[in-house]
């Protein structure tokens, strides 16, 4: 383990602890102690030695609890075996202090790197995320929660090798509870919302913290850090962060990890699939944006900002829905810029005029986007009835007619994912009679649709079977459809859903579930 200081400070004099370890130079210090560069005289190897210290005025009981916690740290880290975890070699007592002897990693922290060089390249962020995720999964499998995942606890070598350190406040599920005293342990800007609400740390809270770390690496700044601790905690609870430099699988992964509800966050396999796709055509680096936006629509209602309607796996299908990513992406609509969402003005759209702004548009991630509903849309009238598997003509703009099909048998078109973009339960708009939800604009709806439809098809095990070539598309509501305008087809109501569709190459149908 190495510290965060640029210049090493020599120990006042050569110190030998436990008649074995020589302390050579100070590497860094924090609230709980000092890290030294040391040498193991028995084995003859360089080590890092963490000298744990308590402030003045602590009681004997507090000191005893502190020592138990430190011993637990050593036991915890010693149980882990992963290349991205800093190895603990020994723990010793000497002259009233406790020392933890660890692997010496001579590398800057992620915090150091970003401070000096700015945001990291998407591929590097993804690789870093995969390594730290593997370390966390190893810990979680052992019943251990890290509790303090943050940039200064991740060291990154010049080769790109990452190391997660400081399990000093990790809590093993089978260890006596030493930290249930009402105090929140960890760094405020990287604490999951449920931790601030008083709930115990969990594997899901580590995942949230990793999402905040990757956001920091992508943007070059912390998503929730503010000038005061109170403001930082408020941001964690109320702010919806929006990635400005990337889109596609990396943005979907980070958004999915930062879902407010623990049960709504992505799991390890989903995160790994998304991060594994970064660097392909599915990732587009965007120019930096100057503004940081809030999800004012939900926040003004006093509701938690990441609780939109859940996306849903459509009935009768074996395909896995990706509602956590959908929830995160949909919330990003309110946080995305342009004022269209806040003022009710469209972005890139003129009411009453037919537009082809997104006609035949192909995102770099391979998801086409089309508008649905009314004369200003590419599909003025397209009915899916209650079926999500259909048979009919090729999917091209206009008014094609489809019939419901058995999903177990070959079919021509499939609506494989659907989600609402707004839940008025958590909004000041709609149910309480204060007015309609403003149309967010084609640009923001298109971006959200591309990300959630792309992410879901990426994770689906049958995304592109051999001998087939699927096309993926998203249907977003036109402004007429969103507002329930009078020029909609007879019987149509306002609809704010995003629908994800897929079809096979011309002349081939999608295989039925029974044949997969």
From TrEMBL:
One of its GO terms (molecular function) is kinase activity. CDD domains: STKc_PknB_like. It is an enzyme of class 2 (transferase). Its EC number is 2.7.11.1. Residues 21-275 form the Protein kinase domain. It holds the Pfam family Pkinase. SMART domains: S_TKc (SM00220). It comes from the Bacteria. ATP binds at residue 50. Keywords: ATP-binding, Kinase, Nucleotide-binding, Serine/threonine-protein kinase, Transferase. This is non-specific serine/threonine protein kinase.
């Amino acid at each position: 383990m190495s510290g965060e200081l640029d210049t090493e400070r020599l120990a006042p004099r050569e110190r030998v602890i436990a008649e074995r370890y020589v302390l050579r130079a100070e590497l860094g210090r924090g609230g709980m102690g000092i890290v030294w560069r040391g040498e193991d005289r028995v084995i003859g190897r360089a080590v890092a030695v963490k000298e744990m210290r308590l402030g003045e005025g602590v009681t004997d009981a507090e000191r005893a609890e502190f020592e138990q916690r430190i011993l637990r740290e050593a036991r915890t880290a010693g149980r882990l075996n992963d290349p991205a975890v800093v190895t603990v070699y020994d723990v010793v007592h000497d002259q009233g202090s406790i020392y933890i002897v660890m692997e010496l990693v001579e590398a800057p922290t992620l915090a150091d790197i970003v401070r000096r060089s700015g945001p990291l390249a998407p591929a590097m962020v993804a690789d870093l995320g995969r390594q730290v995720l593997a370390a966390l999964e190893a810990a979680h499998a052992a019943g251990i929660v890290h509790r303090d995942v943050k940039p200064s606890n991740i060291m990154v070598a010049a080769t790109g090798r990452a190391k997660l350190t400081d399990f000093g406040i990790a809590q093993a599920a089978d260890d006596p509870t030493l930290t249930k005293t009402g105090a929140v342990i960890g760094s405020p800007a990287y604490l999951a919302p449920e931790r601030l609400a008083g709930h115990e740390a969990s594997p899901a809270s580590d995942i949230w913290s990793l999402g905040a770390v990757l956001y920091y690496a992508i943007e070059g700044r912390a998503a929730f850090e503010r000038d005061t601790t109170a403001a930082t905690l408020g941001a964690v609870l109320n702010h919806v962060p929006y990635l400005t430099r990337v889109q596609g699988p990396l943005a979907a992964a980070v958004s999915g990890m930062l879902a407010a509800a623990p049960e709504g966050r992505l799991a390890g396999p989903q995160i790994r699939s998304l991060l594994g796709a970064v660097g392909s055509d599915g990732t587009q680096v965007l120019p930096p944006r100057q503004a940081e936006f809030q999800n004012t629509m939900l926040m003004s209602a006093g509701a938690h900002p990441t609780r939109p309607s859940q996306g849903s796996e459509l009935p009768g299908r074996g395909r896995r829905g990706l509602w956590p990513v959908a929830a995160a992406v949909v919330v990003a609509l309110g946080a995305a810029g342009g004022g269209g969402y806040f003022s009710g003005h469209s972005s890139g759209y003129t009411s009453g005029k037919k537009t082809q702004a997104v006609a035949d548009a192909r995102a770099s991630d391979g998801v086409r986007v089309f508008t649905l509903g009314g004369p200003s849309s590419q599909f003025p009238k397209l009915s899916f009835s209650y079926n999500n598997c259909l048979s009919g003509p090729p999917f091209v703009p206009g008014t094609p007619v489809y019939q419901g099909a058995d999903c177990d048998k070959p079919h021509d078109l499939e609506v494989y994912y659907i989600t609402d973009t707004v839940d008025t339960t958590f909004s000041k708009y709609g149910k309480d009679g204060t007015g309609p939800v403003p149309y967010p604009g084609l640009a923001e709806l298109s971006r959200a649709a591309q990300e959630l439809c792309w992410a879901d098809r990426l994770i689906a095990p049958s995304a592109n079977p051999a001998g087939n070539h699927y096309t993926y598309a998203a249907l977003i509501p036109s402004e007429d459809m969103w507002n329930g305008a009078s020029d909609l087809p007879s019987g149509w109501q306002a609809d704010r859903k995003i629908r994800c569709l897929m079809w096979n190459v011309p002349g081939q149908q999608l295989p039925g579930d029974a044949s997969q």
